[in-house]
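Hello forum,

I keep getting stuck at the same step: I have a sequence, I want structure tokens, and every attempt I make locally crashes halfway through. Rather than fight my setup again tonight, could one of you with a working pipeline run this one for me? It's a single chain of 319 residues.
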Amino acid sequence: MADQSPLDAYSQVVTGVAAHLTGKVASLRVPVSGSRDRGPRRGGESLGSAVVYTGDGFLLTNAHVVGSAQSGTASFADGSSAPFTVVGADPLSDLAVLRSAGPTPPPAELGEADQLVVGQLVVAVGNPLGLAGSVTAGVVSALGRSLPTRSGAAARLIEDVIQTDAALNPGNSGGALADSQARVVGINTAVAGVGLGLAVPVNTTTRRIIAALMRDGKVRRAYLGLVSMPAPLPAALQERFGRASGLRVVEVVAGGPADRAGLRAGDLLLTAAGKPVEKAQDLQRLMFGEAIGQPFAITVMRNGALVDVIAQPSELVAA
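Reply #2:
Ran it on my machine without issues. Output:
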């Protein structure tokens, strides 16, 4: 009988991902100011992880890891460390971009979270202080989850959050969630319960957020001033539009862009800026800086008739 490998296929994948990514994930030490709890602490510092994003020293982590801090220290598995500055943080997506003042390991390869399927193997790689190279494995247990976030008075849902049963150790926030090819498909963001982890997906929307943080240090978002929820389309509209649901307007903020455009509670949103809208995330994807102050066409069903309105989104400002 031929000799068999001591590692089965599952173990080979996990060890391969760990070997490839562990060196590319930093341990962060961030000074804590005030009493706000940002996660695990040691002394006067908040602890977390970060993923090397570019070859010239940019790192990705969670906004809640850095909080309001402007700097900190990143340490790597090879024993090196360097101070970093916070380039930009976006609490509404829980993403932050850092810039190391010293050399970093080569960057991790980013994958595409939108291609994940439930049941797929994923590996969580973090670098919590005292647990260097923390690696756990599991499967994607759910997709399309939403994680509520807030910045001042502004609230938002992080869309398409990845739920996994890969255990997350304290300090793993900001670390990598990777597929079997060691491509980073998410940034671990929260522990939601025993045996449950959540990660911000790496997809088209989050790449736009990261690019904005690198370029401007912040993310400009457009604001319509309405609250909506998914609602079924009448049978005739289902056939016409080829989908089953739209967004029912539950509330319109007085004096806001939606109110000025003539939208009303009870309207059923069908399209916005020429794009179909079925859930809140579909509308959120359109609410970035380029929409601010621009004509924004919306089609709704009202009292059995199709109505077109033109809104002009304003800029969302955190109070």
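The chain has two domains: 1-218, 222-315. If your local run keeps crashing, start a new thread with the error log.
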